[in-house]
UniProtKB/TrEMBL annotation:
SUPFAM superfamilies attached to this UniProt entry: MTH938-like
Identification of the protein by name: Mth938 domain-containing protein
Family, similarity comment: Belongs to the AAMDC family.
Domain of life: Eukaryota
Alphabetic keyword roster: Cytoplasm
UniProt keyword Oxidoreductase, yes or no: no
GO-annotated cellular components: cytoplasm
Lineage: Eukaryota, Metazoa, Chordata, Craniata, Vertebrata
Entry's localization field: Cytoplasm
Biological processes, Gene Ontology terms: positive regulation of fat cell differentiation
Predominant place of localization: cytoplasm
Pfam family, one: DUF498
């Protein structure tokens, strides 16, 4: 038929999407397990199966994306706000791991921890290298874990 294009099915596995109006990259894993954080170094993080290199990232069962502090006005102090975690919480996680940076410069106020606990979510607040280790251990055990990780100071 002329004038019609064949519709291709969506690719299987992970794929990168750039939503309209957003500069951050998303990676989705259509298997709804928490993705492994494959590597971490100063200013760089890689999530297994995703080609994007993140400076700061959010991960949840089935995906990951850049954690852009400008979206919520986050700064090192007062630090991580409930608004930074809403997206991860909505993914149905049971545990959230917060990486405070390599030197733990990123603060986490009590109101943020309270927000998670009031939603029935366990929370771990750690130096980022330790946070990634703990996150990966939980993910490997099949826990519905999410997190936000700051990879510099």
């Amino acid at each position: 038929m002329r004038g019609r294009r064949a519709v291709r099915p969506p690719p299987r596995g992970r794929r990168r999407l750039r939503p309209a109006g957003q500069g951050s990259r998303l990676c989705f894993n259509f298997v709804m397990s928490s993705p492994e954080i494959a590597s971490l170094s100063w200013g760089q993080m890689k999530v297994k199966g995703c080609s994007t290199t993140y400076k700061d990232c959010k991960v949840w069962p089935g995906g990951s994306r850049t954690w852009d502090w400008r979206e919520t006005g986050t700064n090192h102090s007062p630090g991580v706000q409930p608004a930074d975690l809403e997206e991860v919480v909505k993914k149905g996680v049971k545990t959230v791991v917060i990486g405070r940076g390599m030197s733990e410069a990123l603060q986490v106020p009590p109101s943020t921890v309270d927000y998670l606990k009031k939603n029935g979510i366990d929370v771990l607040v750690l130096q980022t290298e330790k946070a990634v280790e703990e996150y990966n251990a939980l993910a490997a055990r099949g826990v519905k874990v999410g997190g936000v990780f700051h990879s510099t100071c």
